[in-house]
């Protein structure tokens, strides 16, 4: 594979996040201002309309209340007198086309609203004849039933139309009708000016948000996205040089970007560890298979030359070759077990098992397999405990240590097992009384293919991988494994496995 040149720089396929953030900030500011302006505009309009409607309703109600003081059908005279609360009992003649507009200043302040140019009041008798009006123009009665203030358009003008049948307070009989029309021309003028102001402010907002928002967004994005740029550069360096040991620098922001940097470094370390494990696996297998392959090749060469005609040499060569093939199979299986043990945190992170049950099962199996051995189990647990480990792996772990205890026992064929627990850990201790391990070798026994006595270990069928598998299993489940030994007296292995959190529930 051809590596990219060091000077090669990866081109962006589109605008950078900094530019996108700057534009997004401008757009966001503009949208927020627009929403605020529209809400303000709509609220103002609704408030004005509601206020005008209340005024119209209050005025027509007051008119109806005053006209209801008459006991007779409404006429121009009693209408005028009731509205103005006049006490003139003379024979003053009021023309039916007379206007109140010129006299409204004499009426109390509440009814004075009838004198507004935009307010038109029309009073009708029972025959729907117009008998009183406050403006030059006349209007027919729209309907004889009550009509709350409603926005309508009459003769090209828009306003609130309200109709109120008049009932006498004394006789309870209908004596006429009152109709008002409040023109909203002034309201529409205010609305148009408000809308024009809003449009001007929107244009100004667009300009300011484009300038200030872009500048502010650019500096903010440059500051907040700086870790992402560092992450991109780190990834680009790794792309150019996969063997590089570079890491993402630590970020002190204590936010999602800091978490991202930490997760990236953990992922990078795990990836590199897997690569190292793969390379180590291939190297170890190649190294360990070299000897059995050479032995088999030697025997086959011997047979090919002249040994196939000698039954004794033929049998010896075939027996040795089969023994080496069996050892190769065992070696490959152990290497696969070790490879899987290195990845249990990926596939078995949430698995649990019962500690006492599995320990007793393996203990009973070994008593059957090795009847000439004295195997004892001391149980200090009062109840079952659930361990944070896959059942098969826990079995494999105990079997590896027990197998070593039996394999390296000498004259005293005895193995002790004990189990106990603390608040957070389950402990299993396995003790043999064999040859022991020298102090200088004690820290090396968990290394791959390490044998204290290589010649003796080979005769016992060991490849030096069992304890490596055990250590890898325990550590990947966040546990611990310790070894204590005295030469000539034996060895004790202590294994600590985390107790599952569900145990506390």
Q: Mind sketching the topology for me?
A:
Layout: H1 17-67, H2 76-84, E1 119-124, E2 130-133, E3 147-154, E4 157-167, E5 174-183, H3 185-224, H4 226-240, H5 256-305, H6 311-341, H7 344-347, E6 353-354, H8 355-369, E7 374-379, E8 386-387, H9 391-407, E9 414-421, E10 425-432, H10 454-459, H11 466-476, E11 480-486, E12 490-498
Parallel strand pairs: 7-9
Antiparallel strand pairs: 1-2, 1-5, 3-4, 4-5, 6-8, 9-10, 10-12, 11-12
Helix pairs in contact: 1-3, 5-6, 6-11, 8-9, 9-11
Question: How do you describe this structure in short?
Answer:
This protein is of the alpha+beta class and 505 residues long. It has helices at residues 17-67, 76-84, 185-224, 226-240, 256-305, 311-341, 344-347, 355-369, 391-407, 454-459, 466-476; strands at 119-124, 130-133, 147-154, 157-167, 174-183, 353-354, 374-379, 386-387, 414-421, 425-432, 480-486, 490-498.
Task: Enter the CATH topology name of the largest domain.
Answer: Beta-Lactamase
Taken from the alpha-carbon principal axes, the silhouette is: elongated
- What is the helical fraction, as a range of percent? 40-55%
CATH domain class of the largest domain: Alpha Beta
Q: In DSSP terms, counting alpha (H) and pi (I) runs of 4 or more, how many helices?
A: 11
Mean pLDDT: 78
- Number-wise, the strands total 12
> What percent of residues are in strands?
15-25%
Helix and strand succession?
Answer: HHEEEEEHHHHHEHEEHEEHHEE
**Biggest β-sheet: count, sense, barrel?**
5 strands, antiparallel
Lateral strand order in the biggest sheet = 2-1-5-4-3
- The CATH architecture of the largest domain can be given as 2-Layer Sandwich
| CA-based gyration radius | 50 Å
Structural class by sheet pairing and helices: alpha+beta
